[in-house]
Write a structure and sequence with these properties.
The complex is a heterodimer of chains A (about 180) and B (about 850). By secondary structure, chain A is of the alpha+beta class. Chain A has two domains: about 5-80, Roll (Ubiquitin-like (UB roll)), CATH 3.10.20; about 90-160, DNA polymerase, domain 1 (Orthogonal Bundle). Chain A is built from five helices and five strands. Chain A has a five-stranded mixed β-sheet, with helices on one face. In chain A, strand 1 and strand 2 form a beta hairpin. Chain A is globular and about 50 Å long. In chain A, about 55% of the residues are buried. Chain B folds into four domains: about 15-25 and about 485-630, Aldehyde Oxidoreductase, domain 4; about 30-125 and about 240-315, Aldehyde oxidase/xanthine dehydrogenase, a/b hammerhead (Aldehyde Oxidoreductase, domain 3, Alpha-Beta Complex), CATH 3.90.1170.50; about 150-230 and about 330-405 and about 795-835, Aldehyde Oxidoreductase, domain 4; about 445-480 and about 635-780, Aldehyde oxidase/xanthine dehydrogenase, molybdopterin binding domain (Aldehyde Oxidoreductase, domain 4), CATH 3.30.365.10. In chain B, strand 27 (about 655-665), helix 17 and strand 28 form a beta-alpha-beta unit. In chain B, helix 14 packs parallel to helix 15 (about 550-580). In chain B, about 60% of the residues are buried. Classes of the chains: A alpha+beta (about 180), B alpha+beta (about 850).
Chain lengths: ~180, ~850
């Protein structure tokens, strides 16, 4: 079997990449391109941790072959913040406690962005439907739903003021190439 | 410490939130090392079998395969205990559950490793399979016998010799039992008497207080029922994983593990791989949920593989493996009889508890027994607990391990009795709820608990005024949890720019690092922006306890207080000397330090730091140290009220409203405490309504995917109202108690009680599926014929036999032999046996 060449737009940048045709978009992004924000929680499209935007629409990238991205626009959680400034959705998740362990968070944030692109005034039910394919085991969804509603209705107040929010130092890895 | 709290108690965003909303945070599954191999495991094709031979030669020849290991590769210099799951990370001679690792492959990529599994030829000799713990206990049941278990060991499983006929009573380590050091609850392994000894019993325990026969004789109401809970998975979204790098030159193993307890992980890996502890280093990346399941399951096998392959190796479970062959929470069968007087006063509780531990011991059986009675003032108690082996993946902890099992049973009993005597659910619990000074079944006196405060807070909640329509019902349940309590140590040091760095070795699952930042800021008298919290690895961090038993903020919080006080006092001493003034004249703020009485005496933080760490520094560097002993117990009590609507045709349960209340002592961070209450409550709802690992007759899991193993989704739930009750503890940071676990306990009972209120039917088995409810309502006549689920447990062949069965009953005179089972490789506390007084 031979590698196939894929040309696509990844987080606003053009990219050309060769991968075996059986590999998923999630695998290529994580293992080859170093974008580990999208997570694999099940590999069968049930948990939503790998959600990213393909031409603006949320998809579970564990079920998308890398080759299917050819000629398309891929946006991952890493591509949402511009120039280091977080989006209102991201700020809302921080302020409203919409995350705990964080492993599902990328998928929820991407799904929330997709919702707010198409619906500026979602109801609680709209929010729950939009994230209906995402599983979280920590929060009970309460603060995630509140964060997304806040992002919709209090967008103006959710400005990224990074200096006022404590950021964890990250010397997690004391060896290895991290 | 200031009297008025300015930072502790406030809602505060997580210190790691920025990394997590941008996808930057590095979890175990994100670790990549140069030359790293991918590992796949070949699981046993039988739930119980002898492994006759394994031929790996064809797999080894596959291009890209670097190493293949089997039980023969287990370290030869180590005495492994094959009765312990923690030591049986690769099956040898026998496999005890479907999917148990029998071989593993490391290859250049995951696809090659997966392909190679097909070329491993294993010959099995199948053995009889036991899936139902009640069947497993029958006198003619086949035995689940681990390698190396001789006659003496088997006496624990299958005592057929009684050494004497005298009555004995068991004396437990009263201080410790039931205190939920998750894997350390002392379990009393008792030999049963000669006739009808139950087989496959890994451990047995009896709790007695007073005289239940007398208690029931004095009762006006006596209720007996049998409650069943399914095996459920902890459900963390980050799959179990570890990455290992063996350094053959220095004989040192470095492990990156998705673990709750890096120091335990190090000790366990060293023990089973035959390495000195200092030659194992565990680094914990961000952990994507653990809930009790991430204690030593994965690392040893990956470590062994790296030692064999000579390269870094990573192993990530699949979700299928998670549901088929990890370490979920136990199924149980609890037959319980309770009594009360006409005025509602409780008289007695008698129970037989059978916990299905799967293929290895390690279930929270004794905790289930204790927590059946602990929340209430039962004057007479007889609880007979059995931990039974079956051919399923063995179980481990899951958030308040066993708590939901106990609560589902006792909370329905309580509800039924309240109805019988015409009292409200709340009144009855306020009358009978345990409080300080009452004795738990294991003999431990209750410390100060907030059960009453929680019920009183809940009583004022507006939910009670919400009208209920047809097919709607409201249910209440409570639950309490002992929790862990240390010991812990931390360091607080001053950095060049005037920030203080808090260094800990605890894993942050629930936002504990944010709480530490708040605590340190409060103690130092500085804004939170001046605090950084860092978790280091086992080589560099001061010792921190496991992130289990809800103990991290409770115990480590005190170490952080001590370390911050120490740092502050060093700062003040230096400043007083430098400014030629007294320590209480010094003020610290964001910019630096100054003297109140001498306005010209001031230093910025960088200037100050120069005086303690600069090239010509006059003073010693500021290094605060906090090292604290185990705390006093500070159990957390929780309660839940749920309103449901049950579809009268289908039995579908719609959750209308949920209120979760818990006494947390002091909420250090209100936002994360609310998050804990909400998250735990929804996990409790999940196991109550949907979750169940279903086994086929061959021991294979029939719903090993997240499509079929049904977890709570965003669309199943309303918002969860969290009520925080604060009744300060004596020994926790700022009066905090344990927080994480209790909220998972009450929902199952609350929902069962709500369903009963809505339908008039009691459901005695979890999950409360639509089918079960519809069946109870008489809506599904052909349920048994239609069902495609695994066969349900057969009725208990030996139900409790009425009054008069005291300690001389069938199980009443077990002789303790002082032998204690190990739980997941760790020896539990010795239980002592002594004659009846």
């Amino acid at each position: 079997m031979e590698q196939t060449t894929i040309r696509f737009t990844l987080n606003d940048r053009p990219i050309t990449h060769a991968a075996m045709p059986y590999r998923t978009l999630l695998e290529v992004l994580r293992d080859d391109l170093g974008l580990t924000g999208s997570k694999e929680g099940c590999g069968t499209g049930d948990c939503g941790a790998c959600t990213l935007l393909l031409d603006g629409k949320p998809v579970t990238s564990c079920l998308v072959l890398a080759a299917e991205a050819d000629g398309r626009k891929v946006t991952t959680v890493e591509g949402l913040a511009k120039d280091g400034k977080l989006t209102p959705v991201q700020v809302a998740f921080i302020r409203y406690g919409g995350l705990q362990c964080g492993i599902c968070t990328s998928g929820f944030i991407v799904a929330a962005h997709a919702l707010l692109e198409s619906n500026k005034t979602p109801s609680e039910a709209d929010v729950r439907a939009a994230i209906g394919g995402n599983l979280c085991r920590c929060t009970g969804y309460d603060k995630i739903v509140r964060a997304i509603l806040a992002a919709a209705y209090d967008e103006g107040e959710l400005v990224d003021e990074s200096a006022s929010m404590p950021v964890m130092e990250k010397p997690l890895f004391t060896e290895g190439p991290m | 410490m200031t009297a008025e709290l300015t930072i502790v108690g406030k809602p505060m965003p997580r210190v790691d939130a920025r990394d997590k909303v941008t996808g930057k945070a590095v979890f175990g599954v994100d670790v990549q090392l140069p030359g790293m191999l991918a590992m796949k495991v070949l699981g046993s094709a039988y739930a119980h079998a002898e492994i006759v031979s394994i031929d790996t030669s064809r797999a080894r020849k596959l291009p890209g395969v670097v190493a293949v290991i089997t039980g023969d590769d287990l370290p030869h210099n180590v005495e492994l205990n094959f009765g312990s799951r923690g030591h049986s990370f690769l099956a040898k001679h026998k496999a005890f559950f479907y999917g148990q690792p029998v071989a593993a492959v490391a290859a250049v990529d995951i696809h090659t490793a997966e392909e190679a599994l097909k070329y491993i030829d294993v010959k099995y000799r199948p053995l009889p399979i036991l899936l139902d713990p009640l069947e497993a206990m029958k006198p003619d049941a086949p035995l689940i016998q681990h390698m190396g278990e001789g006659a003496s060991e088997m006496s624990m499983h299958n005592a057929d010799v009684a050494e004497d006929d005298e009555d004995h009573t068991e004396e437990l380590d009263k201080e410790d039992i039931g205190d939920s050091d998750i894997r350390e609850a002392a379990e009393l392994a008792s030999e049963a008497q000669a006739e009808a000894a139950p087989r496959n019993v890994a451990s047995h325990i009896v709790f007695k207080q007073g005289d239940v026969a007398k208690g029931f004789a004095e009762s006006d109401v006596v209720i007996e029922n049998t409650y069943r809970l399914a095996q459920v998975h902890q459900g963390y979204l980050e799959l179990q994983n570890a990455t290992a790098n063996w350094d053959a030159v220095n004989q040192q193993l470095t492990l990156w593990v998705s673990t709750q307890a890096q120091f335990y992980e190090r000790q366990h890996a060293a023990e089973v791989l035959g390495l000195p502890i200092h030659k194992v280093k565990v680094i914990t990346p961000e952990v994507g949920g653990g809930f009790g399941a991430k204690f030593g399951l994965v690392a040893p096998l990956v470590g062994l593989m790296s030692m064999k392959a000579g390269r870094p190796v990573q192993h990530i479970y699949t979700r299928h493996e998670e549901l088929q062959a990890s370490n979920p929470a136990p199924a149980s069968v609890i037959t319980i009889k309770t009594g009360c007087k006409k005025d509602g006063t409780l008289t007695a509780i008698e129970a037989k508890v059978v916990v299905d531990t799967g293929a290895y011991s390690g279930s929270p059986m004794s905790i289930i027994c204790i927590m059946l009675a602990a929340p209430y003032k039962f004057p007479n108690i007889f609880i007979d607990g059995y931990e039974v082996l079956t051919n399923k993946q063995s179980v481990a902890a899951y958030r308040a391990p066993g708590g939901p099992n106990s609560s589902f049973a006792i909370e329905q009993q309580i509800d039924i009795m309240a109805n019988e005597v015409g009292m409200s659910a709340l009144e009855f619990r306020l009358l009978n709820g345990s409080e300080e000074g009452y004795t738990r079944p294991d003999g431990t006196p209750q410390p100060k608990i907030g059960l009453r405060a929680v019920l009183n807070a809940l009583a004022r909640h507006p939910i009670w005024k919400e009208p209920l329509g047809p097919n709607q019902g409201r249910g209440l349940a409570i639950g309490g949890w002992g929790g862990g309590r240390g010991p812990a140590s931390a360091i607080v040091k001053l950095e060049g720019d005037g920030t203080f760095e808090v260094v800990v070795g605890t894993v942050d699952l629930t936002g504990t690092n944010t709480s530490f930042a708040q605590i340190a800021a409060e103690v130092l008298g500085l804004p939170i922006s001046k605090i950084h919290v860092t978790r280091l690895d086992t080589e560099t961090a001061p010792f921190g306890p496991a992130a289990g038993g809800s103990q991290v903020t409770y115990s480590m919080g005190v170490a952080v207080i001590e370390a911050a006080k120490d740092a502050r006092s060093q700062v003040l001493k230096v400043a007083a000397k430098e400014f030629d003034t007294t320590e209480d004249d010094i003020v610290l703020d964001e910019v630096g330090l100054r003297s109140q009485s001498k306005p010209d005496k001031k230093l910025s933080w960088p200037q100050f730091q120069e005086t303690t760490s600069g090239w010509t520094a006059k003073y010693a560097p500021v290094l605060g140290r906090g090292s604290v002993e185990r705390r006093k117990g500070a159990p957390g009590y929780a309660a839940c009220v749920a309103d449901v609507e049950v579809d009268p045709l289908t039995g579908y349960v719609k959750i209308l409203r949920v209120v979760a209340a818990q006494d947390v002592g002091k909420a250090i961070n209100r936002m994360s405490v609310e998050g804990q209450l909400q998250g735990g409550t929804v996990q409790g709802i999940g196991l109550a309504l949907w979750e169940e690992i279903m086994y086929g007759a061959d021991g294979r899991v029939r719903n090993a995917s997240l499509l079929d193993y049904r977890k709570a989704t965003p669309r199943d739930l309303p918002l969860i109202d969290a009520v925080i009750v604060e009744q300060a503890s004596d020994d926790g940071p700022f009066g905090a108690k344990i927080v994480g676990e209790p909220s998972i306990i009450p929902p199952a009972g609350a929902l069962a009680n709500a369903v009963a209120a809505a339908t008039g039917k009691r459901i005695f088995e979890l999950p409360l599926t639509a089918e079960r409810i519809a069946r109870a309502m008489g809506r599904v006549q052909e349920y048994d014929a239609m069902t495609t689920t695994a066969p349900t447990l057969t009725p208990d062949p030996s139900p409790i036999r009425g009054e008069g069965r005291g300690r001389n009953g069938r199980n009443g005179h077990g002789r303790t032999n002082g032998k204690v089972k190990t739980t997941n490789g760790r020896a539990s506390r010795k239980a002592t046996a002594r004659k009846a007084r």
